[in-house]
Amino acid sequence: MNPIVALPEASTHAVRVDHIFFVLLILSGLVMILVFALIIVLAVRYRRGSSAKRGPLPEIVSREFEIGWTAATAFLFIFLFWWAASADLGSLSAPANALELHVVAKQWMWKAQHPNGAREIDALHVPLDQPVRLVMTSQDVIHSFFVPAFRIKQDVLPGQDTEIWFKATKTGVFPLLCAEYCGTDHSRMRGHIVVMRQEEYAKWLAEQPEGDDLAHLGAKLFVAQGCSGCHAEASSVHAPKLAGLYGRTVQLSDGRQVTADDAYIRDSILQPKRDIVAGYQPIMPSFAGLLDDGEIQELSAYIRSLTQENNND
Ligand code: CUA
């Protein structure tokens, strides 16, 4: 724990954020002291009846001095902006080896799913010293995933995935809060993050009841919702094949090119008439209202798994 902050610094990001916070605090404190000192000194010196000189200002500062201090403060501001912006942007793009967990928010709970399918509600068990990437969506309104001890906060939106990542540096239990007013029980939409040593996390994970993993659930939905009728390899309907699709650049009929990521897959399921793949007819029906956000994550995971299997061949 940082001796000055009453809040544990439990992630790599927390340390960066606190450094920025204290530097800004000290800098603005110094500026404040300077301004107040000048106010007091000048008020006393030029008070009514004092014998201080009140004529026009003498030319005491040189042009070089003027340019110098203006440039120095400008550079200081640009540096502060760069420092804070890079810390903030860095919390958005996770390292490639990050463990990917899925979070679905709803009024008023946090549901999480681990890569092996283990699920939990209002709790998130994570390993120590391992980057963890959260892919989050909401089933209803806007929520915000906030872990004060990690200094991370990210809005969770319906109809869209948002991401954040962290690397926990301390074991323990840390509060998880919802930081966006989301209805009556917003203040009770709490949970906790349990940071465990890596071997303990592996043990914990193995003890969880067998859940189907996301891709597996997605494969079942793919058949149950009739997607396989057109998109299966052997289908007679002329529909884009999905194996190897994930991450590839797709040529659309209107000449645009898009990358087949989770957002593209979500849009293709919900608004299939919007981005038509070149060479195909706009015959796919929309599944808006038929699938919830959790199910779309499952289908997306299934489509991604088709690409990973391909790469392994
Ligand atoms: Cu969810 Cu506030």
Please provide a brief summary of the model.
The chain is built from seven helices and twelve strands.
How helix-rich are the residues, as a percent range? 25-40%
Radius of gyration: 27 Å
Structural class: alpha+beta
Q: N- to C-terminal separation?
A: 48 Å
What's the count of strands?
Answer: 12
Give the bound compounds: dinuclear copper ion
Q: Give the helices and strands as they follow along the chain.
A: HHEEEEEEEEEEHHHEEHH
Taken as a percent bin, the fraction of beta residues is 15-25%
Which descriptor suits the 3D outline?
A: elongated
Spatial strand sequence of the major β-sheet: 3-2-1-5-8
Average pLDDT reading:
85
**Regions with little confidence, pLDDT below 50 for 5+ residues:** none
Individual helix count = 7
- Please describe the biggest sheet, giving its number of strands, its sense, and whether it closes into a barrel: 5 strands, mixed
Describe the overall structure.
This protein has seven helices and twelve strands. The chain has helices at residues 12-45, 63-90, 198-207, 214-224, 227-231, 262-270, 293-312; strands at 99-106, 109-113, 119-121, 123-127, 131-138, 143-147, 152-156, 162-167, 172-178, 190-196, 249-251, 257-259. The strands form three sheets. It has a five-stranded mixed β-sheet. Strands 4-10-9-6-7 form a five-stranded mixed β-sheet. The structure holds dinuclear copper ion. The site of dinuclear copper ion (CUA) has 8 residues, from loops.
